[in-house]
């Protein structure tokens, strides 16, 4: 920015004069030029105030009939007005075509998309096929309103989380620096204190002990400093671990940013992933389609008259143990009809026929016979 | 029908159901294999006796297959093996023995225990021959096993006391593992007894006017509890029942009595004929008890079937889709045919004791023929059984001579069997896949043994 402003300050005369009111910087050093992305015609701040304060008006530049609004006027960022315009167009197109890489089937599709976007931008910048491109873009925008908005929200979230992370890191760095400073300070103070201690002891002690006291003082100093160093190491390791885990967490946060709901394939962009909506789960059927207690040969009743069974109903000795005649009914009736429709003659013949692939059935029986006769092996089931 | 699928999951259906032909083939195979073995074993024993001093018994006798042509044709004649029919008669005799043995206990063993034991014995002798294992040894073991599987607890000593002869407890459980193995460890026997109780229970309910129509016929309006009751009361009296003692005043007595009588007769049939004949292998329990009921009281059985399957009036539409009526219409003639077969088989049964002529031939078979063609290597079951259970191998030293003999006899056919099994397995698995080291291992294992 400063370099741009410098460049602006050093520019020639024609830049210094407002093309509308012809006032120059020379007369008005605070003069600022504004542009409107509608036509990119430059004019000074006072002109904008003058012309557009009372509502939208035509561009004062001769031959330009665009209607401009005051709200859209802004400062020029780039020196070259064409660059400014391209950046604006790019921003607008990017806002609309804001698909993300994970929405595409393949890398290739994503690359195609990027190329297509660049082409659209180039078209708009250079004015080729503007009407068609513009209409395509609008159509796409209106069709994919939801996904565009979702992606925008995602982007904003990412940006904010990135910023947050950065400030967090800065904060951490500051804390570390402070801690280090503190450390250094402590060390210095302690050194001083111990030195003073030694001195005072030397002063108080006898002359013969001088050497011993000095040695002792040095030893104490060494011990203290080594203890401190190990303590520091420990803290540093801890911090490093903390930092790592933070980073990892942040990374995960980025990954788990919830996937936006994507509208169906648009006409403009190819190769988007098909959105598979999972089939709604059916209610769980514990019997797998079978009807419990369904019987084909009989209907179970609650009571069957029987001189033999009736006393049991009244017999508390039987009932106390939880004996239930229902169980007896259902079991006897089940056994009465289990296999009524099994025609062994047919079914076994069929099975033997099917199982005779390689003569397994005769072999199995023979094997069983021999296994039983001889002294080894369990007869295997066919 | 959901009940049929229920039965199809049982081991009785999966492992112990046969067609008439396959049952016969199975018995013939067993008999042939056992005869070969017996001949070989007896020949070996004779040779061993002949060369008792010089050659060792442990050396394997060179032989190609069960029937070697060259050594001593005189022996071949001397060893006369049982035919499959004779084997079956022998087994049947011991099945009846089980019934009597069960009666001897105080209190008598429940019918269901005896029936289970009989089925065990019959299943055992599907894959084993009486020539190999004498039924006299197997029979008490089967009965004892049945008391355990049917939850009728008895201590072994108590059980052994009831067995006639000087049978010790050890003798009874010696072949236990062998029996279990031959049963393929499937101890579940589906009996028709409880099914009969259920059917009678429903008939009584029908007689009282409380019987609900069958689920598939409930909507036809011809079947309501009242109409069913009326139909039941209007049944023609049964023609003279197979056992004539109680049939004198059948027409005058009430329907309930009639049902109770039918119940009794049916139960008698199930206890005797159903056990000794092959019906358990050929039919399902539901068919067995219905066939027995048909023998006891034909009109009643016919009526009961009609309540279940609908009257014969409903025309079968073979082209129509599988509506319940259609299924029943298709099922009905087939079921009637099957029941008729089963009933004929049950009716053909005559208890052995009632036929002195058959009894005499049987005595000859068991007494003489079976004695002569008993496999000499399988007499000492204790040794063989203990060899199977490593935990019980304490007495192995005592039986080394016998087991040595068994080994040499078994190993070759065993080897052959294993090789064949392996070949089949690999063929079924995938012809191209090679299992490394597989063949080697099997050969080694057989040699070791």
Description:
- The complex is a heterodimer of chains A (382) and B (449).
- Chain A is an all-alpha fold.
- Chain A has a domain of 62 residues.
- Helix content of chain A is 59%, strand content 3%.
- Chain A has 13 helices and 5 strands.
- In chain A, a hairpin with an 8-residue loop joins β3 and β4.
- The relative contact order of chain B is 0.10.
- The chains are: A mainly alpha (382), B mainly alpha (449).
- The interface between A and B is large, with 57 and 82 residues.
In short:
The complex is a heterodimer of chains A (382) and B (449). Chain A is mostly helical and 382 residues long.
Keywords:
heterodimer, A: 382 residues, mainly alpha, 3-stranded antiparallel sheet, two-stranded antiparallel ribbon, 3% strand, disordered N terminus, disordered C terminus, B: 449 residues, Cyclin A, domain 1, 22 helices, elongated
Distance between the termini of chain B: 50 Å
The global form of chain B is elongated
Helix-strand string of chain B: HHHHHHHHHHHHHHHHHHHHHH
What fraction of the residues of chain B are assigned to beta strands by DSSP?
Answer: under 5%
CATH class of the domain at 18-48 and 81-189 and 356-390 in chain B: Mainly Alpha
Helix tally of chain B equals: 22
Give the averaged pLDDT of chain B, no decimals. 77
Total beta strand runs of chain A: 5
Name the quaternary structure. heterodimer
User: Could you give a short account of the major beta sheet of chain B?
Assistant: none
Q: How much helix is in the residues of chain B?
A: 55-70%
Counting helices, strands and paired strands, the structural category of chain A is mainly alpha
Number of strands of chain B: 0
| CATH architectural label of the domain at 18-48 and 81-189 and 356-390 in chain B | Orthogonal Bundle
How much strand of chain A? under 5%
Low-confidence stretches of chain B: 55-76, 241-252, 314-320, 383-411
| Biggest interface, residues from each chain | A-B, 57 and 82 residues
- Element pattern of chain A in H and E: HHEEHEEEHHHHHHHHHH
CATH homologous superfamily heading of the domain at 18-48 and 81-189 and 356-390 in chain B: Cyclin-like
Describe the biggest sheet of chain A? 3 strands, antiparallel
């Amino acid at each position: 920015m400063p370099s741009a402003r410098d460049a602006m300050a050093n520019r020639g005369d024609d830049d210094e004069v407002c093309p509308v009111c012809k006032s120059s910087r020379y007369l008005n050093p605070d003069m600022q030029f504004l542009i409107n992305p509608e036509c990119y015609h430059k004019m000074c701040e006072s002109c904008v105030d003058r012309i557009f304060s009372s509502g939208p008006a035509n561009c004062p530049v001769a031959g330009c009939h665009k209607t401009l609004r005051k709200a859209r006027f802004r400062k020029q960022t780039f020196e070259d007005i064409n660059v400014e315009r391209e950046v604006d167009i790019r921003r607008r197109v990017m806002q609309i075509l804001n698909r993300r890489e994970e929405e595409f089937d393949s890398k290739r599709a994503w690359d195609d998309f990027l190329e297509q976007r660049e082409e659209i931008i180039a078209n708009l910048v250079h004015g080729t096929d503007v009407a068609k491109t513009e209409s395509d873009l609008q159509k796409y925008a209106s069709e994919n309103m939801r996904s565009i908005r979702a992606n925008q929200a995602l982007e904003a979230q990412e940006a904010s989380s990135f910023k947050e992370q950065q400030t967090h890191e800065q904060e951490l760095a500051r804390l570390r620096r402070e801690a280090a400073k503190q450390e250094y300070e402590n060390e210095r103070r302690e050194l001083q204190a111990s030195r003073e201690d030694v001195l005072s002891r030397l002063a108080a002690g006898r002359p013969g002990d001088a050497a011993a006291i000095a040695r002792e003082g040095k030893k104490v100093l060494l011990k203290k400093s080594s203890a401190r160093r190990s303590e520091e190491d420990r803290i540093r390791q801890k911090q490093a671990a903390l930092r790592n885990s933070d980073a990892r967490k942040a990374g995960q946060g980025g990954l788990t940013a919830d996937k936006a709901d994507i509208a169906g394939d648009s006409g403009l962009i190819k190769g988007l992933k098909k959105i598979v909506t999972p089939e709604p789960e059916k209610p769980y059927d514990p019997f797998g389609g079978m009807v419990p207690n369904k019987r084909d040969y009989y209907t179970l009743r609650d009571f069957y008259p029987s001189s033999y069974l009736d006393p049991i109903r009244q017999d508390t000795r039987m009932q106390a143990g939880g004996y239930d005649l229902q169980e007896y009914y259902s079991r006897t009736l089940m056994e009465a009809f289990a296999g009524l429709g099994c025609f062994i003659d047919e079914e076994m013949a069929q099975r033997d026929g099917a199982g005779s692939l390689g003569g397994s059935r005769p072999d199995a029986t023979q094997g069983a016979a021999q296994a039983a006769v001889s002294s080894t092996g369990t007869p295997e089931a066919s | 029908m959901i009940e049929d699928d229920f039965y199809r999951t049982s081991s009785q259906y999966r492992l112990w159901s046969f067609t008439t032909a396959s049952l016969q083939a199975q018995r013939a195979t067993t008999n042939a294999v056992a005869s070969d073995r017996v001949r070989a074993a007896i020949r070996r024993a004779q040779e061993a006796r002949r060369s008792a001093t010089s050659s060792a018994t442990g050396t394997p006798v060179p032989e190609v297959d069960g029937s070697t042509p060259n050594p001593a044709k005189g022996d071949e004649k001397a060893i006369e093996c049982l035919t499959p029919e004779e084997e079956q008669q022998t087994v049947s005799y011991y099945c009846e023995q089980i019934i009597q043995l069960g009666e001897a206990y105080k209190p008598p063993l429940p019918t269901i225990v005896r029936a289970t034991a009989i089925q065990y014995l019959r299943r055992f002798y599907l894959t084993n021959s009486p020539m190999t294992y004498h039924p006299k040894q197997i029979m008490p073991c089967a009965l004892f096993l049945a008391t355990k599987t049917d939850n009728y607890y008895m201590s072994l000593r108590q059980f052994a006391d009831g067995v006639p002869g000087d049978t010790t407890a050890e003798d009874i459980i010696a072949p236990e593992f062998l029996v279990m193995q031959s049963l393929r460890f499937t101890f579940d026997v589906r009996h028709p007894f409880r099914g009969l109780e259920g059917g009678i229970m429903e008939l009584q309910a029908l007689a009282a006017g409380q019987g609900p129509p069958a689920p598939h016929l409930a909507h036809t309006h011809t079947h309501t509890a009242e109409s069913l009751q009326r139909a039941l009361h209007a049944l023609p009296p049964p023609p003279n029942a197979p056992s004539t003692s109680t049939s004198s005043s059948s027409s005058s007595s009430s329907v309930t009595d009639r049902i109770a009588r039918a119940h009794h007769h049916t139960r008698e049939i199930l206890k005797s004929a159903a056990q000794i004949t092959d019906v358990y292998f050929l039919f399902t329990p539901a068919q067995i008890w219905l066939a027995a009921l048909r023998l006891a009281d034909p009109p009643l059985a016919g009526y009961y079937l009609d309540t279940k399957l609908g009257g014969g009036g409903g025309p079968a539409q073979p082209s129509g889709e599988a509506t319940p009526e259609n299924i029943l219409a298709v099922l009905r003639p087939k079921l009637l045919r099957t029941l008729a077969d089963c009933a004929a088989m049950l009716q053909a049964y005559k208890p052995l004791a009632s036929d002195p002529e058959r009894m005499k031939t049987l005595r000859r078979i068991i007494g003489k023929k079976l004695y002569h063609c008993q496999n000499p290597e399988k007499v000492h079951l204790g040794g063989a059984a203990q060899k199977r259970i490593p935990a019980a191998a304490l007495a192995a030293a005592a039986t080394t001579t016998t087991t040595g003999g068994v080994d040499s006899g078994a190993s070759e056919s065993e080897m052959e069997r294993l090789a064949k099994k392996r070949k089949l397995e690999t063929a079924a698995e995938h012809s191209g896949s090679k299992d490394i080291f597989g063949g080697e291992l099997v050969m080694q294992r057989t040699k070791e043994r």
